[in-house]
Amino acid sequence: MNKRVGIAAVLALLGLSGLFALAQNNKITYLANDADPTSGRHGLFGRLAQECIKQTGAGITYEAQGIPQTDLRQKLQLLAASNSLPTIFPVDEPSFVTQLYKNGQVADLEEVFKKLGILDKVSPAALVLQKSIGGGKFLSLPLELNIEGFWYNKKLFAAQGLNVPVTWDQMMAAAEKFKAAGIQPFAASGDQKWPLTRLINGYVARKYGPDVMERVASGELKVTDAGFVEAAKAIQDMGKKGYFGQGVNTVDYQTALDTFMQGKAAMFYMGSWALRDFNDPKNKVDINNVGFLNFPVVRGGKGSINDWSINTGIGVVLNAKYDTAADPVLKCVLSNWGDRALAEMGQISGFKVTKTPANLSPLTKATLQKLNTAKSAYLWFEGKMSAKAAAVATDNVQLLVTGDMTPENYMAELQKALP
Amino acid sequence: MQGTLRDWRAVLVFVGPALLLYTLILLIPIIWSLGYTLFSGSVITGFKFVGLGNFVQLTQDQKFQSALWFGTKYALVVSSGQVVLGLLLALLYAFYLRKTSVLVRTIVFLPAVLPTVAVGQMFAKLFAIAPQYGLVNSLLHRVGLDSLVQAWLGQAGTAFWVIAAMDIWKAMGFYAVLLYAGLVEIPEEVLEAARLDGAKGWNLARFVVVPLIFPIMISSLIFSLNGTLKVFDSIMALTGGGPGTSTMPLTLYFQKVAFTYSDYGYGSTVALMLALQSLIVTLLIFRRARKDVT
How many CA atoms lie within 13 A of A33 on its CB side? Predict the structure, then answer.
């Protein structure tokens, strides 16, 4: 009798654990690179997923979790090590995406999209860009397609009688004039670090041409070359002259954005994801006063003002071992993403837009047009760097901008960290 | 009692669970981590045997050396501050405020029970410069000392002192209570006799009180040094090791190496160095203390 009870108990336990495994499977888990997984883009993804679950009648559930971007890497390492990565998750470094793909933890999206019949929904430019980042493989979802440049306050420029700067010297002259008038020339988040290395990136792209960082990655150029040191010096000068305002290294992303949106700063280098905030009805600044200009050309440079910094934002990947029961939902979410992101957030994505919303702001329209007519594109500064080199580039830029590190040392340290 | 302790089954029941837990969550990970020091890579990139390569790398790694120096400097400043100010507070409670010290003791102890992240946020706001001045910069501005208004947490030199001030402020109440417990244990007759012999004020403290609570001071110092050498949360909350890597102690460095650079092996090697540093410091204090007492 006792034996039978024992066997029954073991069987019941096995059954329960089987059910548990099943429950784990029938789920789309989404990890957001934000403490709040319902904010902005993550919120839209969640809403769309819930709608699609209802629409398709797929018997699965959706669960979102959030983690601040600064803790993302550590979290991913732990999840990857314990083989419990979510269905959809962000990865902040392209080299890390490739590594996870090699380990069989990240799906090849070209295959998945072909299977779902949605490969034609991806805009050709986004596909080319994603493959260039993924070393020939399409690994990240182009939930965003961003074009970067300086957003500027038209009203402040007009009040100072300034034209839109086309050369670096003109931009610095404008900055000097703003500073003299008591207006902060640039809003920038030194706390986030990357907004500052973006400026070095723009400068060297104008100096050497848009393929500059690829040439560094291949070893053809060294970052200790004169043009790179000149770029580092130019950014350091901006910091030393106080063009970023006081305490740039303590300014976080939101503060920098607010400084610009409140009309306290004349220019703000950022990607077009900032359109979400500019278009937000809560935004008190008139969006018609915001203009968008490309990184200016530098003296003796090979780059042109028609080369843009374009990227798909932080990589968002699909778990290679995702439950295929989620296929109809994924198909539904991704097919609708392009239209919904544009309509609800003014967010441009790498998915084709079939219905252009009637109420699109002129700024979003103009940005879209720039994105569509860009002649050539380059990635962000750390796009081709290893995690270590990227950390050296971003950490040290804080010291560079305050003058605690010389431009020569900054580039020498970076060169040492490059493979 | 002796009979019980000779019974191995009883010993096993008493010690077994704790020993098992200790082995599982402490000993095995420590040995595991020691093993990592001979490898490079991570669970994602895979491991490669490098022998003593990680230790060779340590000798050439400037970041490691500056983190080691920063951690040591920080431990010396903060531990001295915590114990010395703790002692002064304890003397204040015991000899000046006496029975009315309860309220002051509670207030000064309060920061010790607050979460470090919350204290970090408060200090970040106190010393803020953007988007608006924090209390410190506002006060400086009000009294016309605009030349001293600065990004306290945005520069290497000042950030160090803000972190040090925060950690001293946070823990001095704790050490004050610890030392006060020692002070109240000093028999009143001993103090009375010393006073009759003419000792008072500084001399009474220097020659009578401090030697009597010396063992507690040593314990406090060991507690404090081992805490400050392994500081992580307060720096993470306040500066994240920045600007650049100028306020990065070994703890933040090995976390960065292991999890950002994906190199568990070198990260473990740096962690081992920190463990050795803590061990050496503790042994030095013990030896010194024994000499002084005998």
Answer: 16
